[in-house]
Amino acid sequence: QQQQRRQRHHPVSTVSTSRAAPPTPLGLAAERGDASACRALLKDGADPDGVGPRGNRPLHYASYEGHAKTAELLLASDADANARNDVGCTPLHNASTRGHGDVLASLIAAGADVNAVDVDGVTALHVASTRNVTEALLRAGADPNARRRDGRTPLHEACERGDGWATE
């Protein structure tokens, strides 16, 4: 079940999807962390919020893969820090899932909503995978009592993952 939750936040599907369109060129460059290619594409007029498969934008890809410089470049080009994909996940969900604290910090500084929920009511704090990400989200005002649609809180999720430090 945890793998299913993680796959929902993963921007790249390994199975067929109903959205057959490939990622945009900017999305592909962002996923690879190729900041120079992103810069060139943006200079040539690429949309920093161009929608790819499953509703993911370039910032979703950069956030999931932990490409901080690419994420910062996209944010400086007015990419939407609160963009949602088809299941309501934001780039903050993606960075949180993978424990990319540097990307998370950039997203928060750019105004990412730390309490944004996906279609299941999951926040970035529910899927936070490391202590430093959890602490950063809490410092930024994430609600530790937020409940998913099934009633589970971030603490439930942390305990299920075996994150003993989360109870401190």
TrEMBL record:
Pfam families: Ank, Ank_2. Residues 145-168 have a biased composition (Basic and acidic residues). InterPro entries: ANKRD_45/46/60, Ankyrin_rpt, Ankyrin_rpt-contain_sf. It comes from the Eukaryota. Keywords: ANK repeat. The keyword Transmembrane does not apply. Residues 1-11 have a biased composition (Basic residues). This is Ankyrin repeat protein. It comes from Micromonas pusilla.
